[in-house]
Design brief:
The protein has 523 residues and is an alpha/beta fold. It has 5 domains: 197 residues, HUPs (Rossmann fold), CATH 3.40.50; 45 residues; 67 residues, no CATH class; 49 residues; 75 residues, Orthogonal Bundle (Arc Repressor Mutant, subunit A). It contains 21 helices and 13 strands. The strands form 5 sheets. A 4-stranded parallel sheet has the order 3-2-1-9, sandwiched between helices. Strand 10, helix 9 and strand 11 form a beta-alpha-beta unit. Helix 18 packs across helix 20. The longest helix has 20 residues. The protein starts with 8 loop residues before the first helix and ends with a helix.
């Protein structure tokens, strides 16, 4: 199926964008956030959704760019609970976030701390947007003409915004905010405008009265509902989405589109909505201010980059979903592998599913799709290998298959993820250690005899797990043991647990001689 006919969600949005702006030479898709806390995996949904749409536009043969705005010139409205000294941080309230120091002492400012965390992480999944710092844009007076235009049209802007408000804005309202020259806080009221570039103001915080020329001084900024559509025209944005809260009736997307059409005479950009994502086991959405978040880097500790992309590429943006860090991770890996097999024609599905999942895979790969299907090590098996060898490099050496360089890289990456998962998230039942000095306490004579027969059986050079599995049944039957009693005895002796990994592959992975040596210690 050609991309122009594709029903994949990003291709549909891309076609709408090109239809709305047919003469555009460079399509701009945008996203952004106020970096007032950790940029978590929920925020990442906006980033990757925009990146996928940008890819979809390019696949139509068009030029496209992805811009990401850091709204670091927004005032600090509340103190996040996860800063080291919340009480001490209160003195920066109402100042621009970019002017507050980094409480952790590793970056030049509070906002830069969170910006750099995200900027270092997104390239790991193939995303390289053009980052725009709004503090730089405002302070260098880049928006001076836009601010003047807004002031000239303030009465029309007030009428439009009042359509969506319960309490109307007053007639003397100005659609700008000013940071006080004296205390650097945005707690000012405009007292006069000279119909050019100068505004007079009074600071309610320090009682300072003064004026500022916004063509020469970058102290003036627009409020969010006016700033957003202004930037759409300034950057010629073709599409920008918004979260659930922005898409409510009368929300900032509704007002932004109204202002864009009727005041700024542009567009408006093609809109789309993305819903919240949560972590399985947590209640409610993640909150940067509370600190109960998972970052992209933390997600990449257990999910390889292409699978991280797949989690988002495979879901429509408006669908809520949960990210799993418990044993559901096994299924997530298997689902991705199935998608990969469909792309490479190794899984039989109907034409519609083939087209859909192949497109999902194209959006999941970090760069270009490989020419041959990569190795697909089961995550559960990788967990078992880490349990046995403790080290990811040593675990890779124990893999019997002959691997290409790229397959070794993927296998090692998944082994590293398995090691991280065991250390941070795995339930106890998936953690084990091979017992060099096993205990036979509680075992019946029948079970001990069966273990001795198993040790003898391992003298044979088994290379096939199916063949070895058949031996287990024969031994259990010989000693009149049910499978539960037989396998329970083996797992108790080998890993000191009632249950464990699939026994035959486990024995072959550890090595028959080593298992036989342990079993021989049972008296």
């Amino acid at each position: 199926m050609k991309h122009k006919e594709s029903m994949y969600w990003a291709d549909q949005i891309a076609r709408r964008i090109v239809e709305r702006f047919p003469k555009e030479k460079l399509y701009t898709v945008a996203a952004g956030i106020t970096p007032s806390g950790t940029v978590h995996i929920g925020h990442f949904r906006e980033i990757i959704t925009t990146d996928i749409i940008c890819r979809a536009i390019k696949s139509l043969g068009k030029k496209a760019r992805f811009i990401y705005s850091w709204d670091d010139y927004d005032r600090i409205r509340k103190v996040p609970k996860n800063v080291p000294d919340p009480k001490g941080f209160e003195k920066y309230m109402f100042m621009p976030g970019v002017d507050a120091p980094d409480p952790w002492g590793c970056h030049k400012s509070y906002t830069l701390h969170f910006e750099k965390e995200a900027e270092e992480a997104v390239p790991l999944v193939g995303i390289k947007p053009q980052f725009i710092y709004q503090s730089n844009m405002y302070r260098s007076c880049k928006y001076a003409e836009e601010i003047k235009y807004v002031l000239e049209n303030r009465f029309q802007i007030r009428v439009i915004l009042n359509k969506y408000r319960k309490e109307p804005l007053p007639e003397n309202w100005y659609p700008v905010a000013i940071y006080c020259k004296k205390c650097n806080r945005e707690q000012t009221e405009i007292t006069d405008w000279d119909n050019d570039y100068t505004l007079k103001y009074h600071c309610k915080m320090c009682n300072y009265k003064g004026e500022t020329n916004f063509k020469k001084e970058g102290l003036t900024k627009l409020p969010w509902r006016v700033d957003w559509p202004m930037r759409w025209r300034y950057e010629r944005v073709s599409s920008e989405g918004g979260g659930k809260e922005h898409n409510t009736p009368g929300g900032s997307i509704d007002t932004g589109h109204d202002l864009c059409k009727n005041v700024f005479k542009y567009g408006p950009p093609v809109r789309f909505m993305y819903d919240f994502i949560t972590v399985k086991g947590q209640t409610g959405k993640m909150s940067s201010s509370k600190g109960d978040v998972v970052t992209l880097k933390e997600n990449l500790e257990v999910y390889i980059p292409e699978l991280t992309r797949y989690i988002f590429a495979g879901s429509k943006p408006q669908m809520e979903f949960k990210i799993s860090f418990d044993e559901d991770i096994f299924k997530v890996y298997e689902d991705f592998y199935k998608c990969e097999r469909i792309y490479f024609g190794k899984e039989n599905v109907n034409d519609r599913d083939k087209a859909h999942w192949s497109r999902v895979y194209e959006m999941s790969v970090v760069n270009k799709a490989p020419k041959k299907m990569p190795v697909q090590p089961a995550f559960k098996h990788c967990v078992e290998l880490i349990n046995l060898h403790r080290d990811s490099e040593k675990a890779l050496e124990a893999v019997p298959e002959k691997l290409t360089k790229s397959d070794k890289e993927r296998y090692l990456a998944i082994l590293i993820c398995a090691k991280n998962w065991l250390a941070k998230y795995a339930p106890e039942q998936y953690k084990f250690e091979l017992q060099e000095n096993p205990s036979s306490a509680g075992l019946s004579e029948k079970q001990k005899a069966a273990l001795k027969d198993l040790a003898k059986a391992l003298n044979k050079n088994y290379t096939d797990s199916k063949e070895l599995s058949s031996v287990f049944g024969e031994i259990a039957k010989k000693h009149d043991l049910g499978f539960k009693d037989f396998f329970g005895a083996v797992y108790q002796v080998l890993i000191n647990k009632e249950r464990g990994p699939r026994l035959a592959p486990f024995i072959l992975a550890v090595g028959r001689p080593k298992i036989r040596k342990i079993l021989d210690k049972i008296k």
